[in-house]
Amino acid sequence: MCWQEFIKKEQQKTYYKNLQQFIDQEITAGKSIYPSEEDRFKAFSLTELKNTKVVILGQDPYHGEGQAHGLSFSVPKGVKLPPSLRNIYKELADDLCWDNLPENGDLSEWAKQGVLLINAVLTVEKSNAGSHAKRGWEQFTNNVIQHINDNNEGVVFLLWGSYAIKKSTLIDSNKHHILTAVHPSPLSAYRGFFGCQHFSKTNNLLIVQNKTPINWKAD
């Protein structure tokens, strides 16, 4: 089942209809919802199920104007790097011995190589972090993770922070690889995100499976 079919199937379920009703009511009330509707499922359009090699799970979309565009931790080209993404780039540079940090925060090239960049919650109200939590998105993305677990082999799951790590219960560690660390936010990055070497470890795990490693510097 491709992602388009999967999403259509989920949208017929009661929980999703209730979720959609909530979002529609928020928009009708004049609230700004991020990302835009056309970007809501961007991760699934850029990374098809059969091509998924890596999953990076975030918690909530960015809630600042112009930041969220449907990929976890990513921002559109030209937008200032958020602190968590800058720390991800710092770890990448250290792990892979880069001289300079990228300034482009658009991670679409990762997605095109098979890195599914999803948040547990796919929408948020402007300037109101966590505002769409516990409305149904968690069930949707849990089903996404289980669908990958059941239909793929040898996927590398990068789970950063306690919220993401809890999702490991949905993943068969005999079929897949789970790498965990603290969240890359400035509040926690120095407690174990820096030095985790998840990017080189991911590529080593892919190479062992005769899969093409990720070009993390793709721009």
Describe the protein's topology.
Elements: H1 3-11, H2 14-28, E1 33-34, H3 42-46, E2 54-58, H4 83-96, H5 108-112, E3 115-119, E4 124-125, H6 137-151, E5 156-160, H7 162-165, E6 177-181, H8 198-208
Parallel strand pairs: 2-3, 2-5, 5-6
Antiparallel strand pairs: 1-4
What can you see in these coordinates?
This protein has a 4-stranded parallel beta sheet. The chain has a two-stranded antiparallel sheet with strand order 1-4. The mean pLDDT is 96. Helices cover 36% and strands 11% of the residues. The protein is an alpha/beta fold. The two termini are 30 Å apart.
- What's the tally of helices? 8
Mean pLDDT, to the nearest integer, reads 96
Q: For the report, how would you describe the main beta sheet?
A: 4 strands, parallel
Low-pLDDT stretches: none
The main sheet orders its strands as: 3-2-5-6
- What's the helix-strand series? HHEHEHHEEHEHEH
State Rg: 17 Å
Oligomer: single chain
Number of β-strand runs:
6
Give the end-to-end Cα distance, rounded to a whole number of Å. 30 Å
Shape verdict: globular
Please identify the structural class as seen in this structure: alpha/beta
> What is the share of helical residues?
25-40%
The fraction of residues in strands falls at 5-15%
How would you summarize this macromolecular structure in one to three sentences?
With 219 residues, the chain is an alpha/beta fold. It is built from eight helices and six strands; from the N terminus they run H-H-E-H-E-H-H-E-E-H-E-H-E-H.
